[in-house]
Design brief:
The complex is a heterotrimer. Chain A is an alpha+beta fold. Chain A has helices at residues 2-13, 16-55, 82-89, 144-150, 196-202, 232-235, 237-275, 277-285, 290-326, 351-378, 381-386; strands at 58-62, 78-79, 93-104, 110-117, 138-143, 157-163, 169-180, 191-195, 208-209, 211-214, 227-231, 328-329, 344-345. The relative contact order of chain A is 0.18. By secondary structure, chain C is of the alpha+beta class. Classes of the chains: A alpha+beta, B alpha+beta, C alpha+beta.
Chain lengths: 390, 424, 252
């Protein structure tokens, strides 16, 4: 207790120098947490968006379907198996039918995918209910990137052409009733969304689907013959891999910031011991065990770290809160990246992140405070009293 | 005088070595972090610039309106003349024509029958030319996974992922099925001589890299190119300059009447890239500023300490009759020397490390082995001219300022008091 | 490759039939269609044609020679421009192979490549693959008479029979009453939307039959004036050896 009080008095007594160090350390806390928060925010946001907009609890794909291989789309439609139908009836799954087609916005031909979705579905958090707007023969929903890249606007009409199950051309006027605000390219680019029943009817594929999205709550999935289940982990692998690849960069930055912290504390400690050698001598002469003197100096370093937590909290919490609320703008033209990236990035700060950062910085500080203090152990009290360092 | 002080510094290791080490370490970290942040900020737009937008991009007006679909029927023609002209007007810029195209790659079996087919995203670049800037722009040598770089016409690179998926053997013929700029179907044989991996999922899924001359032949685009990309020589994007460049280009070449007249756009004018650029610059700037400030405090603190611990010596010198002003000045000169030496040493090591990071990168791939995809986990720095200077802010200024403050104590104290602190 | 030509040929073969000297008043729609198919399927033809494609970048001219046996089998050999010369294409029912001398590869065209426009024309490979036996796949109705291009015409409306696998759900013909030549054909989607339009500008006589000389194929959903096709010469009822319709012939 005495050591603690002494340490506290020593560092508060040091005035400006203490506060400078505390300031530096607090920067380190805030920077590390902020940087990590951005990465975590990016991953969470992308993962959450993909889960809510695209994959939910996972997807059953009809055999042969490969969203990355357009050659497989033509034949990727099958009757929905009864096991999955019962899930759909319970509203814990929703089928999607994917058909190749052509649209003619402004009379220029463009190959796209037509996706049919139940307007009443609640599995995916996309505005499919807008498709219930039936005054138009074929209400169409497009993603915002698709809309922007092709200059499509709400209310615009264009011809959609496709072939039905018999290979007969059909074409109909599509009417954009909704521009979907999503960051998931897989449900946005190169495709249009229409009501499932319409697409099934128009393409002569009643009761058929290409994939079935299962709700997250569903436990004990049925095995559907000729359908392959892709779970969340499988479908999220790309985005997780991407974020992990950025982790290396974060580690690198921590290492540099930790060095900065080490430099600050080390410098302070070395010079403190140099300057306060007479004080050390006195304490030892008065009978304080060396270990406690070392403890005192180490504790002073640690107290700097703890004070820094307080200071970091004072300005860091509002600053981090602000960025978490307001987000940081980044591109939404990330089509080439092939995964969901938000146009506005909201850093996420988890409790684990904050405690982890604090723990790592504190451990670093403790070690760096202790290392120079070991010299005290070698001090001869008489020399120290005289102000000599041996 | 300076020589005297330098000798003094050299002889007294506690006066020189420790402070120089401190300053060097601080400067080193500053330089490395700065270069790393620059590399990271650059990375955000870099991929777009390198693969898509360039620093500036010239396309035809009609092409521009449908750019996302890479409509080669609306491509630029007369590209050789246009290139020659802009190379004369802007000789310092690197200009390189490209064609983006889609199609199917058909892999034959031993009998020449189709064994596998897959959709491709083609990028035609200046690949065969010995001095091609694209090797550097697309970092081709670093991205090569198997095989070698193309050397002969009709030799191509394909993405490693795609190659493995389709089972494309190296040094065997494959056939590209695509459409000419006039819309005819075209077949063209290529030999896959190498595979590349860029670490961007969408690209790596189906990329093929073709020489532009081959593509012009295959796609019936004689003297044509979808786009001409312009880069600053060191690939450092300078927004203001590029915007001015594109304005002057458009005044001269662009005509509202001709839908095929060329139009230039700077990277930041593309979609939201400008916004990211600004954001990353600001974000990176904040981190750097905060770091330099923090480092300055540390080094200032060190300077301060250096001054304080020498009060005894100063006492002696004052007692011997040196004036306070002289002592103060010599302290500052010493600090300047330490600052310079420390900053130079730190900058040298920092720049070396940064260059190493720029060219070799720090590979974190091993940490990500669980990932089934090949993934670039390589950290890269970017050395810019300012990297050579940045370290001097904390290194020189901060340590000198620290000494300036510490030195004030010399004036505040009596000679006797300082002398007492000597007591060696 | 000459997709427009092929599609056009399918309608144009039915135009051929109308030249038959029987008065149309005596025939029901079904009878007309049956004659179309009979005539069409039994005869082999060898023709040389020119296709003129007008795009935003100017005009291109492509010539080709084609051997056709009914609508099921066609073999096309491109003669010019130099770039296309030697390219061959074989269609047997719903399979399509293409061969180019430069690649020396035989490649089957499938999937989404079939939806591509060929030669930059208004026709796609899908159009090329279109080969209905009209009397089996369509119900026909003579809906009236109209004057078209200063000629008196019957208007025929064809609607796909339920379950028949055809590209166009309905078709409409304007048939010259005297010459029994369809001067215009409109092709519709299931929804009734007009998709393609074939119009004849010039006709000529071959072996006493009236034939289209010059006609336009237009994808009405797209901008532009469509693709013009000129039949330079045509030999009807030609004997075509069977090997012509083999993959080996592509490499010859």
């Amino acid at each position: 207790m005495l050591t603690l009080r002494l340490a506290w008095r020593n560092i508060t007594g040091a005035g400006l120098r203490t506060w400078l160090n505390v300031g530096v350390l607090s920067f380190i806390y805030v920077l590390v947490i902020w940087h990590q928060g951005i990465l975590l925010g990016m991953q969470r946001h992308a993962v959450n968006a993909m889960i809510s907009d695209e994959i939910s609890g996972g997807q059953f794909w009809c055999r042969g379907y490969d969203p990355f291989d357009p050659l497989t789309i033509e034949d990727s439609h099958q009757n929905i198996p009864t096991d999955l139908l019962s899930l759909i009836d319970e509203e814990t799954a929703t089928p999607i039918l994917v058909r190749p087609g052509t649209i003619y916005p402004k009379n220029r031909m463009q190959s796209i995918l037509i996706k049919g979705i139940d307007p009443d579905q609640r599995i995916l958090d996309i505005p499919s209910s807008d498709l219930q707007d039936i005054p138009h023969r074929l209400p169409v929903m497009v993603g915002k990137t698709m809309a922007r890249k092709n200059g499509l606007t709400q209310g615009e009409e264009f011809v959609i052409r496709w072939r039905d199950a018999d290979g007969t051309f059909d074409a109909i006027e599509g009417h954009i009733v909704s521009i979907m605000d999503t960051i998931v390219p897989a449900i946005d680019q190169g495709q249009i969304w229409v009501p499932l029943a319409d697409l099934q009817e128009l393409s002569g594929m009643a009761k058929q689907a290409t994939l079935v999205v299962v709700d997250q709550q569903v436990r004990g999935l049925p095995a559907a013959k000729n359908w392959v289940f892709k779970d969340q982990a499988n479908l999220l692998r790309d985005v997780n891999d991407m974020v992990n690849s950025k982790r290396g960069g974060a580690v690198f930055m921590y290492i540099i910031l930790m060095f900065l912290a080490m430099l600050a504390i080390f410098d302070t400690q070395v010079l403190a011991i140099f300057r306060r050698r007479r004080e050390i001598g006195t304490m030892m002469a008065l009978g304080m065990p060396r270990i406690r003197v070392i403890g005192l100096f180490t504790l002073e370093g640690i107290l700097l770290g703890i004070l820094a937590i307080g200071v970091a909290a004072v300005y860091g919490i509002p600053a981090l809160y602000y960025t978490a609320q307001k987000g940081l703008p980044i591109s939404d033209d990330t089509s080439d990246w092939g995964f969901a990236v938000a146009s506005r990035l909201f850093p996420a700060y988890s409790a684990a992140l904050i405690t982890g950062t604090v723990a790592i910085v504190m451990i670093t500080i403790t070690i760096v405070s202790f290392l120079p203090s070991r010299r005290i152990a070698k001090l001869n009290p008489t020399d120290a009293l005289k102000g000599k360092l041996t | 005088m300076i020589r005297f002080l330098l000798i003094g510094l050299l002889r007294d290791r506690s006066r020189s070595l420790f402070p120089v080490l401190m300053v060097s370490a601080g400067v080193f970290l500053t330089v490395v972090l700065y270069a790393y942040i620059k590399g990271m900020v650059g990375d955000m737009v870099d991929a777009s610039a390198r693969f898509d937008t360039g620093h500036v991009k010239i396309v035809s007006r009609a092409y521009h309106l449908r750019e996302s679909q890479a409509p080669n029927d609306l491509a630029l023609l007369g590209v050789d003349d246009l290139l020659a002209t802009i190379r004369t007007i802007h000789p310092r810029m690197v200009w390189t024509p490209r064609i983006r195209f889609g199609g199917l790659l058909d892999v034959p079996d031993a009998n020449g029958e189709t064994r596998a087919q897959g959709p491709v995203a083609g990028l035609a670049i200046d690949l065969l030319n010995k001095d091609t800037p694209e090797r550097n722009i697309l970092k081709l040598d670093e991205s090569l996974v198997r095989g070698r770089m193309p050397e002969q016409p009709d030799e191509i690179l394909i993405s490693e992922t795609f190659g493995r998926k389709l089972g494309v053997p190296l040094d065997k013929n494959v056939t590209l099925m695509s459409a000419t700029m006039y819309g005819s179907m075209t077949l063209h044989n290529f030999t896959v001589v190498g595979t590349v991996h860029f670490g961007m999922a969408a690209l790596d899924r189906q990329l093929i890299l073709v020489d532009i001359n081959d593509a012009q032949r295959a796609l019936d685009m004689t003297d044509g190119a979808g786009e001409i990309l312009g880069f600053k020589p060191e690939l450092d994007y300078a927004d203001q300059e590029m915007r001015i460049l594109s304005q002057s280009f458009n005044r001269r070449f662009n005509s509202a009447e001709d839908e095929f007249s060329p139009i230039m756009h700077a990277l930041s004018e593309k979609d939201l890239l400008g916004e990211i650029l600004e954001m990353t610059n600001i974000g990176g700037g904040i981190i750097i500023a905060v770091f330099v400030f923090a480092m300055s405090i540390v080094l200032w603190n060190a300077g301060l300490m250096n001054g304080i611990r020498r009060y005894g010596e100063i006492g002696v010198r004052l007692a011997m009759g040196e004036s306070k002003g002289d002592v103060y000045r010599s302290m500052i000169v010493e600090a300047v020397c330490i600052g310079i030496i420390g900053s130079v040493v730190g900058t040298i090591f920092g720049i070396l490390t940064a260059y190493w990071l720029q060219y070799h990168g720090l590979d974190f791939t091993d940490f990500m082995r669980q990932s089934t995809m090949l993934m670039s986990g390589v950290i890269r720095a970017k050395v810019t001219p300012f990297s050579y200077v940045i370290g001097f802010f904390p290194g020189l200024l901060a340590s000198v300022i620290g000494t300036l403050f510490a030195g004030i104590g010399v004036f505040q104290r009596q000679t006797a008091q300082l002398f007492k602190e000597l007591e060696v | 490759m000459n997709a427009i030509y092929m599609t056009a040929l399918s309608c144009f073969c039915l135009l051929v039939l109308f030249f038959s000297p029987v008065w149309a008043e005596d025939l029901s729609g079904e009878e007309i269609l049956k004659r179309i198919d009979d005539n069409f399927l039994s005869s082999g033809s060898i023709s040389v044609s020119t296709m003129i494609i007008t795009g935003r970048r100017g005009t291109r001219t492509i010539t080709s020679r084609q051997w056709a046996q009914g609508t099921r089998k066609t073999f096309t050999h491109f003669l010019s421009p130099p770039r296309e010369k030697g390219t061959k294409m074989l269609k047997i029912e719903d399979a399509l192979w293409i061969y180019t001398p430069a690649t020396d590869r035989l490649i089957k065209i499938a999937g989404h490549m079939l939806r591509q426009s060929l030669m930059g024309s208004d026709a796609s490979y899908e159009d090329f693959m279109e080969d209905p036996e009209l009397n089996k796949t369509y119900d026909v109705n003579i809906s009236g008479t109209e004057t078209y291009l200063d000629r008196a015409c019957y208007v025929l409306e064809l609607t796909a029979k339920p379950g028949s696998k055809v590209a166009y759900h309905s078709r409409k013909f304007w048939v010259d009453k005297e010459r029994f030549l369809a001067l215009r054909e409109d092709l519709f989607a299931k929804s009734g939307k007009l998709l393609k339009k074939v119009t004849i500008q010039e006709v000529f006589r071959v072996d006493g039959r009236w034939y289209p000389k010059r006609f336009t194929f237009k994808d009405v959903l797209k901008d532009g004036d469509g693709t013009q096709i000129i039949i330079d010469n045509i030999e009807l009822d030609a004997e075509i050896p069977e090997y012509m319709f083999s993959k080996a012939a592509l490499r010859r």
